[in-house]
Each structure stands twice: as C-alpha cells, then as structure tokens.
Amino acid sequence: LFWQRDFPKPMTSLVNLARAESGRVASAAVRALSRISHPEVRSLALDLMSNGKREADGILLLKSNRQRGDFVAIENLLAARGEDEFEYHSVGTSILDVLDHASVPPSESKGTLLTLYENDPCSHCRENVVSKLHASGNVPKSMAEECRYDAVPEIAAFFWFDVRTLVEISGTT
Question: Could you tell me which of 62, 122, 69 has the C-alpha nearest to residue 92?
C-alpha cells in the first residue's frame, strides 16, 4: 500500500525493517521508503547498493534521493554483474523505476540503459529501455538497426515507422 502513498508515521520503523536481510517485509519497507526524500534513506540506499546482495533495493531508494553522479555508481554496479540474467532484471526494474520518477539527464543514464538493453532478457524492460533511449535521441545506429527486426513489435515500431531513423541508418536523404 505505501509504495503508492506516503507512509503516515515516522520513517524510523521503516528504515529498521528495510535493513533486515531480505524477505517480503524488507522489500515492502524499501518500496515505502522510496517515496521519502531524506539523508538517512539515501545513506541506506548507498549501503544496500554496496553490500552485494540487495543492490536493486538500494537503487530503488534513489528514486526520491538521487544525486548527480549516482548513475556512474549504478553503471559500475552493472559492470560487475556477471551473466546472471535474473540479477540484471531485478536491478533493471529498479533503475527503470528511478528513471520514471526522477529527472535524470539522458547523458547520465545512457550507459546504464545501453547495458540493460544488452543484458536484461525481459522484453518489457527492453521496450522501456528502448523507449527512453529513443525519446532522448541516444539510440546508437547499430542498435536502431537491430531493433527494426526485434521480435517484440512495439520495439520494432520505434524504428520501422520512424522515417528520420531509417534515413539515418541507411545514410540516404
């Protein structure tokens, strides 16, 4: 409930619950805290991102506590991921949520989005990634060409019917 509306009590109890090792209660507390802008929430976000186990929760807490340069840390976190597709999806979902609710300059999020595009197998997440890159004009030509033939029609539609992109890819005028 409190990931869609503000928590009516002091956040101290939520911070304590969010620090629990894992589980549904900790995740619910993180979702509620993600709506709160506060230095203690930001500190918790950075702690969770660096502990190696709950990076997705830490990233989600940046939703209301993001600062310039956070996406450099997120990009470094993604670079250390390895090949576990579930981990990319979990972290990617949090990243996309932050980007949906916080004003992040496209230049700051571009590298992170490109990494998600290459590694997150979820077609819904990839569609969101492509949408954000396309809206900011940050789609590399090779990716645009690949997306034209994507199995997900919504992804292909970003480029198949966009005459400007087709001209840029083909090099014709």
Answer: 122
